[in-house]
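User: Please predict the structure of the protein below. I'd like the answer in structure-token form so I can feed it into my own downstream comparison script.

Assistant: Understood. Taking the following sequence of 707 residues as input:
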Amino acid sequence: MKKTIIFMALAALPTIAFSQPTASATDDLTKFVDPKIGSGEHGHVFVGASVPFGMVQLGPTSIPQTWDWCSGYHDSDSTVIGFSHTHLSGTGIGDLFDITVMPVIGEVTYARGSEKDPKSGMWSYGDRSREIARPGYYSVPLSRYGILAEMTATPRTGLHRYTFPASDNAALVFDLENGGCWDRPVKTRIEADGNRRLKGYRFSKGWANDQKVYFVAEFSKPFSSFTLHGKDNMYGRASFSTKEGEQVLLKVGISPVSIEAAEKNLRAESPGFDFDGTASRAKNSWNEVLTSVSLADRDDNKRKILYTSLYHSMMLPALFSDYGTPDRYTILSLWDTYRAEMPLLSILQPERYSDIINTMLDIHDRQGRLPVWHLWGNETDCMVGNPGVIAVAEAVVKKTAGVDAKRALEAMVATQNDTIRGLGLRQKYGYIPSDLKEQSVAYDMEYAIADAAVANAAAAMGDRKTAGEFRERSHSYRNYFDRKTGFIRGRLSDGSWREPFDPFRANYSGNDYCEGNAWQYTWLVPHDIEGLKKCFGSRKAILSKLDSLFTAPSYLTGEDVSPDVSGLIGQYAHGNEPSHHVPYLYAMLGERDRASAMVKRILEEQYTAGPDGISGNEDAGQMSAWYVMSALGFYPVEPAGARYWFGYPLFDEVSLKVPGGSFRILVRRDSKDSTRIKRITLNGKPYTLPYITHSDIMRGGDLQFEF
């Protein structure tokens, strides 16, 4: 791509001095995290106890099994059927919720139950007025039974503490029947091993077609009896007598491999029943990752949004390997996270980032292609394109330590040269015809982005032939550009346009796009802005069209409009990923001040500190990662570009922990409302590029903006 230099040469500038202190490693930054941000509307975030990137996400599961309960929790509903050890966060499909535990008093019906009947099932209302949710810890009183439920976690184990009333018939019930939304059990087993220990497994089929979770559980006191109940004995009841205020603790180790591995995880990570110590260590684990970003800003609301966003960005992917083995990961929501979350982790978590990329390469070795949306050992093939290719290519371009570039390039080329999921049609026609595959435009345009990523990776490795081949393939989107309408639109196998055409149509199914419409997909060309400019005919024309995106009427048409197309500013949809790079196209087209103004607007309008604080699905960390990256002042627009385009730095002083020490972003403003960048310096010297490179960030230093 041709570099667009938009800064004038500047005279030498003095380094700007900032006297405010930044957060130290000893600061408790978890106090600025509110896990319930995004738990309302359609945010779908997980609320419960976990550690960063942990296999265990231990928290409440509610009765409803519909779209807004994909994480098992919603701000509008306080029902609890139990506390499950695996959850998703921010997805648009529900699954997991494995190994659910519910404390009860007396005899109950062993079923999920219905809110219409307060005595049905085992469920209870959770008292939200006394609920506590903070990093690494969750608690809620269960009103039906008068029991206080508390939980914390290690990477592979969950630790429960239940405070019971006096009862001769108290119990902890293991529920292996009820999973997340579309998940259903295929085979289960639960058995007692002595009078303090249970073991078993839950195999299920849902979004993940062949999901296996093994577990071992131990109790802090002996149970008086253990009985099996319900359909196919999928409920196991461990009964006790309890005194008023007595605490019964339970620890559960899980594994995707075997009961023996689950026991090993339990022994290694939870050798005793030190609940408070475990919660403290979980909190420290969160502080360790949160302190990778330190703020001088003392605006508590802004700090809450930033650190909660960082928290959400570091919840997933989740560990998918047992203790003592190389770290490998699952819940790879790559169509979402290749855009900002993976680049963010490459800066703040480089070693873990390397392990995540190597996980993808291992998946390629097993299934013959890089992952699309991998969940608990299963390829779901959810969403369009080959996003795993883009994530792996970025690691190659960034020369990520521990990633074998040759192995990576071979995996990328093999994946892009496959013939499944429309790739064969693309090879035959040069594009994917809309009469031969649904969501054809979305598939092809994401494949084009992946092609450009392969080209960048090959170029970084000195392979000019492969780079040239894939660069040319990345231009396939041009087949969809209609000069007459000025939109990207569906094209049939005979070369004609699909009719009728409505750029506002955003049907969930039967659409040429995926979770979007022509307004949004016309801009899904982050890899070839110069080529897109030529499609429009001139810089003036493309800027005029880009302006109209943000001023068009904010309505959508269709019989079944996708709920994912949300957070509208005109037809720009911040609540969904295909739009996330679009404000930065202004910077790429030489209009840095317009980019700055629009990014500032999105940061301030689309994110709040309330339960409805995320304008779309959290999408496994992507929505929050966009906020973190953009609040720092830059964003990774191009696939595998290893550079971050400038937008609007929200904070006056922020420091990142990087391998080179510290990378500080410093801002001086004539006015808090100013969005015009007057000058930039890097380490005290004038800086004229419209982006900062990955290598410059990782070396450490000072990037200074003047507004």
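That's the full token string. The CA atoms of residues 78 and 128 lie 7 Å apart.
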